[in-house]
Amino acid sequence: MIRRNCLLPIAALSMLLLTACSATTPAIDNSSLAKTSFREHKTTYGLVYRLPADVTTVLDAKINDPLNQHLLRLGLQAEAQTFNLPHVTVVHIHSADPATALKMLKALPKPPQPIKLTLKTFYTTEAAKDAGRPWWLDLGIVKSGQGFEDMMAFNTAATAAFAPLRDGPLPRVTGPVYAKMGDAGKELVQTVGVSGVNVVKDGKELRSHNPHNTLVYSMTPFTPALQASMKQVADDFNKVLPDGINTTFNNVSIVELAFSGNVTREIYRINLADGSAIEVASGQLVK
After folding, report:
1. Which of 130, 131, 112 is nearest to 211 (CA)?
2. 193, 94 Cβ separation under 8 angstroms
3. Which pLDDT value is given to residue 287?
4. For 139-184, what is each residue's pLDDT tens digit?
């Protein structure tokens, strides 16, 4: 039987959300959801697992160079040059408040113990089907085992804790993306500021989180020709790494991200084994 020891009881999650809402938080403005253009991006913060060296070494050796060469052949220079600290996301929020990262650290629910998992299967995805952009090339995670269950449970808890700290929806899920979303996705954007996360509704946990690592971030229109070309890239990479990459996540980090979700700065790093945290810039222990 799979243990779900890091999943808080549903009642506790509801109380967590109410407590967070009662604290000093920015006003949440959903007015951008009525517009046809993307909301202006100020700052996105997130909770992510940075990829450990045993994963990045494999990707550097077998994937990244041929991927960049393919992007350049397609004329996707911006995508080939995009800076990103490789990671798997827990949850993102948008807030112009520079104190948000510290607020996230203070609101952080108890993280799981180190997570064993397998990264496997390359594929492309759009922010919303037929929205055109943004789109990504991702490396998925095997959706079974204790590690996966712990990741899903932590997403539920972290979403409840951090959603009240947002000032509105993530810009990348507004405008043309929001217009193409189904009702379930729109409800998540309205209530927690982003789709693709786990929430508690009417006392039940609803799971839509799909943890993954992203290798390409793009705002280039995802035309049928480009879709076909990138699908071939994904298919080729799946032949290169048919068994995926086994690893263990020992840390989770609070980070700053750009519009499309690429991590530009690691702010705090939390040790999953003991819950201690450091400020990355100074190396000082803060928790």
Report:
1. 112
2. yes
3. 84
4. 999 999 999 999 999 999 999 999 999 999 999 999 999 999 999 9
In a domain, 33, yes or no: no
- The CATH code of the domain that includes 57 is 3.90.1140.10
What whole-number distance in Å separates Cα of residue 66 and Cα of residue 235?
13
In a domain, 14, yes or no: no
Collapse the DSSP code of 285 into the 3-class scheme (helix H, G, I; strand E, B; otherwise coil) and give the result. strand
**Domain, as residue range, for 205:** 39-285
**CA dist 192 → 19, 45, 119, 158, 169 (Å):** 15, 14, 27, 11, 8
Distance between CA atoms of 114 and 248, rounded to whole angstroms? 7
The pLDDT of residue 61 is 98
Q: How many domains does the chain have?
A: 1
Residue 55 within any structural domain of the chain: yes
**Range 119-132 burial, b when 16+ CB lie within 10 A, else e:** bbbbbbbbbbeebb
Rounded to whole angstroms, the Cα distance separating 149 from 145 reads 6
- The SS3 assignment for 43 reads coil
Tell me, yes or no, whether 185 lies in a domain. Answer: yes
Flag residues of the chain having pLDDT under 70.
1-26
What values do phi and psi take at 128, rounded to 5? -155, 140
- How many whole angstroms separate alpha carbon 112 and alpha carbon 6? 6
- Tokens 């789109």, residue? 135
Q: Which residues pair with 89 in a beta bridge?
A: 48
Q: Under the phi-then-psi rule, with left for phi > 0, alpha for psi from -120 to 50, and beta for the rest, what region is 271?
A: beta
